[in-house]
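Worked example 3 (structure in, sequence out).
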């Protein structure tokens, strides 16, 4: 039977590339579902994303409206109580998720992109370029992170953009060093020699030939950075270096500390945003650990390897 007949009877055949991507996505989905850490981490992140996208479906109160009693305890009307100004803590927690997640994802994505470009370029080009980029990476590695964050955040205008710039500048170097090491191990591979023989440009070889082979390490770098960023962003805002008019979990911690939440017996005002930071960080960390286990059989639990060996 001809190809045309098959196409007419069963419909158009899917492109080979689409089929390959679909199969890869299916294998990745099965790997996540089979790994408890990946399943738990993915579920946590899906919950956080849903809350960030649809906060009005969960908390209908205005998070900035100071119209309730002051320092009220948890109740059916105010699940986490109220602040010193009479604002609903639960509403602030839900509505603060969006900006917290945006800062975390944007910083992690930009820092991963910078580390990928610098690390892979240094590894492949070599020579003076490698030495210069490695020196730049080493400088940022030895700089004390927290004092530098405090200095930069105190001199720049407060706000989310400043937070993104400061955290991005101080969080790309370690991942760049890792990606450079991986790039050096690929430098002498045959497929790169073939690309050079074909006369491909350096930018093409880096972006098309090298980077796709490092996808797992790049994803791991993004996830690891996310764990770092969500904690440090909240820490800077807790120290008063963020924009106090923006609603995030870090600014909630700042106002709880300024209002003496723990001393006044209003513990949920301080504990809720701290627990939310830990919750999101745990989601990224679990997915990161599971990603390592999926990619490296040696890291999988011993009981699973024993069960397979026995079978």
């Amino acid at each position: 039977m001809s190809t045309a007949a098959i196409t007419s009877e069963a419909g158009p055949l899917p492109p080979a590339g689409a089929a390959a991507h679909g199969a890869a996505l299916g294998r990745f989905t099965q790997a996540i579902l089979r790994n408890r850490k990946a399943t738990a981490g993915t579920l946590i992140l899906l919950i956080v994303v849903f809350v960030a996208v649809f906060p009005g479906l969960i908390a209908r109160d205005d998070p900035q409206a100071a119209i309730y009693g002051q320092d009220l305890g948890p109740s059916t009307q105010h699940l986490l109580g109220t602040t010193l100004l009479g604002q609903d803590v639960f509403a602030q927690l839900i509505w603060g998720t969006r900006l917290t997640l945006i800062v975390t994802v944007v910083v992690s994505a930009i820092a991963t992109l910078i580390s990928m470009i610098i690390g892979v370029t240094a590894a492949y080009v070599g020579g003076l370029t490698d030495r210069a980029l490695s020196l730049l990476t080493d400088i940022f590695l030895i700089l004390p992170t927290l004092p530098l964050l405090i200095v930069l955040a105190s001199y720049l205008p407060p706000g989310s953009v400043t937070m993104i710039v400061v955290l991005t500048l101080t969080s790309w170097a370690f991942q760049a060093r890792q990606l450079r090491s991986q790039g050096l191990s690929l430098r002498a591979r045959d497929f790169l020699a073939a690309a050079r023989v074909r006369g491909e440009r350096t930018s093409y070889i880096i972006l098309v030939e090298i980077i796709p082979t490092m996808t797992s390490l790049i994803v791991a770098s993004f996830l690891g950075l996310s764990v770092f960023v969500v904690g440090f962003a909240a820490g800077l805002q807790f120290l008063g270096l963020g924009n106090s008019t923006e609603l995030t979990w870090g600014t909630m911690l700042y106002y709880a500390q300024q209002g003496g939440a723990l001393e006044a017996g209003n513990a949920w005002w301080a504990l809720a945003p701290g627990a939310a930071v830990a919750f999101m960080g745990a989601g990224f960390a679990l997915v990161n650990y599971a990603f390592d286990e999926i990619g490296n059989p040696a890291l999988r639990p011993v009981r699973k390897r024993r069960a397979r060996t026995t079978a």
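Notes: The two ends are 43 Å apart (CA to CA). The chain has a mean pLDDT of 81.
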